[in-house]
Specification:
407 residues; 3 domains; three-stranded antiparallel β-sheet; 50% helix
């Protein structure tokens, strides 16, 4: 793509000291625009003389040095963006300093920018997930350039994580976050790749019984007599999530009075808001147990915009809500962990596995995957299948014992 870069002294912005800013003029095939060179103000005389090859002062030499660096920076960005270059993308990378005059782009600067953008948009879950992924890769290798990411790099990271006793599931979550950032950089034109480094690298997760409660474990939890208020509340909200189509705890915190419609709770998952043209609604039938929990902990407000659970009606803003949700989840998970120890389950219980347990119980009961997908609000059955864990060993033994029974 053809482009040109020039500078000019802005006569429209002269101050009382007769100083003014210096502007970059960026000319693209489809658009021309101006950008202020930050931190540079000078007189018209000094600006003009800085381009004179001989007999210039130290001040004029410094002006020329700054201008040359900014032109080089702009030239580097436009060459990297190539045919994708636009005013919006240029300004994004020019102001942030994400692209330098070197041939490589700092991965962590890119990631920090994304994390800040997500937080500013009140997308706290995405911001937190990306921060955890970013910190993990930083521990693996404190200096990473975008251009260094290849299949070997990804496999080395996976090996490093597993050797440090991190689960395959965690590796998948972090690698998917990196993949999303990497693909956005390709889309923006920051990097051109011949072979996608993620193509032959698994970013899924393994199926593990630790991340699900099977029927006998669910029965033990259901029959457990809680010790005190905290355990009672933790057990109640686990079964609210489980019976509520495996509703995610974050979605529980976002439910409002208006989501209750007769004997149903109807909502759109936070995870899919803004990602689909027509967001898929999830419908939860309010059975006797869910109604008991709503009567016990639900808001008595008739204001349709109030939260369904009063803990969140005290929040001043979305940041306060996010902090309240983290405490809500943390305290309940802590109590569920204690219950799991008392029941000698050999693994932890937490609110998040109610979703996996819901899907797996339906699978064991023979419910078609298409139905389970509808219950959970998935638009793709493959997503649903990832929640349905492997069959417990006793079920597998029972099924295999019938392989030679032909009658």
């Amino acid at each position: 793509m053809k482009f040109s870069i020039s500078t000019f002294w802005d006569s429209r912005a002269v101050d009382s000291s007769k100083l003014s800013r210096v502007m970059l003029s960026i000319n693209l095939p489809s658009k021309s625009f101006f950008v202020t060179i930050r931190g540079l103000k000078c007189s018209r005389s000094d600006y003009d003389k800085s381009f004179t090859p001989k007999s210039i002062s130290d001040v004029q030499r410094e002006i020329k040095s700054v201008i040359d660096l900014e032109i080089l920076k702009a030239d580097t960005i436009l060459k990297r963006l190539a045919d994708n270059a636009s005013k919006e993308l240029f300004l994004k990378y020019y102001k942030s300093g994400l692209i330098s005059s070197t041939d490589k782009t700092d991965l962590f600067k890119l990631w920090d920018e994304l994390i800040a953008d997500l937080y500013a948009e009140n997308r706290f879950g995405g911001s937190d997930n990306n921060k955890h992924a970013r910190d993990s890769f930083f521990k693996f290798r404190p200096k990473i350039f975008l251009e260094d990411i290849d299949e070997k790099f990804l496999k080395d990271y996976r090996k490093y994580m597993l050797e440090n006793n991190r689960s395959v599931s965690t590796v998948g979550i972090y690698v998917r976050a990196l993949r999303s950032l990497y693909q956005q950089c390709i889309k923006d034109g920051l990097i051109v790749v011949k072979v996608n480094p993620f193509l032959n690298v698994s970013v899924g997760w393994t199926v593990a019984s630790k991340s699900v409660l099977y029927p006998e474990q669910l029965k033990a939890l259901w029959e457990y007599q809680p010790d005190g208020l905290m355990e009672t509340r933790a057990k109640d909200f686990f079964f609210f999530c489980y019976l509520g189509n495996g509703i995610n705890p974050k979605d529980v915190s976002e439910l409002k009075v208006k989501n209750v419609k007769n004997d149903m709770i109807v909502f759109v998952r936070q995870k899919t808001k803004g990602t689909q043209q027509t967001p898929k609604e999830v419908m939860i039938y309010i059975d006797d147990e869910i109604r008991r929990i709503l009567n016990l902990y639900g808001s008595k407000s008739t204001n349709p915009n109030d939260y369904l659970f009063d803990w969140f009606n005290k929040c001043k803003d979305l940041k306060h809500h996010n902090a309240t949700f983290k405490r809500f989840k943390g305290t309940h998970n802590s109590s569920l962990k204690k219950i799991a120890a008392k029941l000698k389950m050999g693994s932890s219980i937490y609110l998040g596995i109610a979703r996996h347990s819901f899907a797996t119980k339906h699978k064991l009961d023979g419910t078609p995957t298409s139905y389970i997908s509808e219950f959970m609000g998935h638009s793709n059955q493959k997503t649903t299948e990832s929640y349905m864990k492997s069959l417990p060993s006793d079920v597998m033994k029972g099924a295999n014992s019938k392989l030679l029974s032909f009658g």
